[in-house]
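Q: Please design a sequence for this.
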């Protein structure tokens, strides 16, 4: 099953025995179901986590875009005055907005790591429901150790990079308060801001690479990072989601390296504005697009399916689930929506050796 919408929306039988359509919106409007019915994506833990991850990339990326390109405006950049107590346009449109974006992004990156620690949860829930909920209910773990999983390494790398960006962006904003501005040395500021941006970028790039490997496998790494040379990848949302993520990490990495080599360059310098627009502006747009595509994937994916993380030989042994989620009545078999990591791969790429684990 691919991430493309089916030609016919699924139907289900409710408790009264009447058949009705789960989705009334089809075609183009169906791709924006995440806007119309956001509450629909909180019926299970994995689905809610995936929705929040997509939202953090979408809204965090949008804030990054605003902050990055606002810094390219001469009027905004020329208003910058160090230690002025947040009185300039630059302080609010660039420093504050970018800091807020890092907080959004950190939430999503942390949840990506949590999601990667629960790759077996949908299969366990499906088996538990198929067994009429006998025994102990499977637990959704907050932390775990899965070193053979690309998703686990990707989530961990994103979390580390996002936390470093938190430190850097918060430092940059705090430096505008006179008491803070006058209390620490230039070297302290460099380590808390510039160096954190420099180190955070490579972690984003590594994380993006991990999710390309999750989808394409090691032999297909170059096919997932350059252009969709294969016909089957050109209209595959999973491919484009990973592609935007990868290049967003690359551009953030280049931007951090630039700041490290030119730490004393001022915001209204033309070189700074160009670098800020290309690397951070371009990278922010990439993450924004990735979040948007994750939202769209969740909207158009057929939710009346068995968990994609189940091995193929186990899928036929479980009856077709109802659409009541994991909160249905006792004795019903419920559908577990895919993990967020499943939005980074689909069945067309799953046959590739090494697609789900490091060999």
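A: Design:
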């Amino acid at each position: 099953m691919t991430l493309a919408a089916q030609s016919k929306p699924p139907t289900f039988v409710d408790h009264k025995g009447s058949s009705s359509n789960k989705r009334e919106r089809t075609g183009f409007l169906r791709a924006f179901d995440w806007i119309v019915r956001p509450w629909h994506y909180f019926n299970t833990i994995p689905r809610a986590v995936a929705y929040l991850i997509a939202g953090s990339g979408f809204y965090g990326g949008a804030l990054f875009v605003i902050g990055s390109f606002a810094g390219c405006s001469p009027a905004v950049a020329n208003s910058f005055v160090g230690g002025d107590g947040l009185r300039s346009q630059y302080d609010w449109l660039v420093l504050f907005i970018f800091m807020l974006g890092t907080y959004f992004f950190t939430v999503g990156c942390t949840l990506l790591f949590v999601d990667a620690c629960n790759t077996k949860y949908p299969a366990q829930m499906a088996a538990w429901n198929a067994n009429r909920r006998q025994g102990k209910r499977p637990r959704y773990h907050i932390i775990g150790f899965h070193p053979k999983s690309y998703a686990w390494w990707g989530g961990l790398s994103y979390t580390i990079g996002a936390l470093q960006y938190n430190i850097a962006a918060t430092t940059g904003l705090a430096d505008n308060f006179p008491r803070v501005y006058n209390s620490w040395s230039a070297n302290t500021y460099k380590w808390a801001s510039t160096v954190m941006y420099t180190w955070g970028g490579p972690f984003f790039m590594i994380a993006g690479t991990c999710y390309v490997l999750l989808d394409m496998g090691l032999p297909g790494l170059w096919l997932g990072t350059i252009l969709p040379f294969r016909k089957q990848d050109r209209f595959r949302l999973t491919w484009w989601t990973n592609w935007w993520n990868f290049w967003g990490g690359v551009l953030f990495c280049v931007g951090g390296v630039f700041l490290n080599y030119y730490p004393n360059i001022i915001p209204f310098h033309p070189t700074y504005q160009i670098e800020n627009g290309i690397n951070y502006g371009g990278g922010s747009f990439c993450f924004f697009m990735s979040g948007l595509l994750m939202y769209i994937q969740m909207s158009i994916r057929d939710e009346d399916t068995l968990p994609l993380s189940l091995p193929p030989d186990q899928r036929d042994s479980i009856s077709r689930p109802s659409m009541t989620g994991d909160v249905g009545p006792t004795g019903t078999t419920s559908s577990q929506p895919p993990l967020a990591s499943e939005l980074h791969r689909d069945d067309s790429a799953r046959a590739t050796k090494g697609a789900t684990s490091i060999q």
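Q: Thanks. Anything notable?
A: DSSP finds twelve helices and two strands in the chain. Strands lie at 11-13, 19-21.
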